[in-house]
Amino acid sequence: MGVFRDAMSEAMALRGFAPKTRSAYLSWVRRLVQFCRVVPDLLTTDHVRAFLLYLTQERKLSFSTFNQALHAVRFFFIEVLKRPFVLEGLRYQRPPRRLPVVMSEEEVKRLLEGAHSLRDRALLETGYATGMRVSEVTRLLITDIDSQRMQIRVEQGKGRKDRSVMLSPSLLETLRNYWRASKPQVFLFPGAKGKPLSVSAAQKAFDKARLQAGIRKSVSFHTLRHSFATHLLEDGANVRKIQALLGHRSLQTTELYTHVAENYLNQTRSPLDRLRGKQATPRA
Question: Residue 154 and residue 161: Cα distance in Å, rounded?
Answer without folding.
Answer: 8
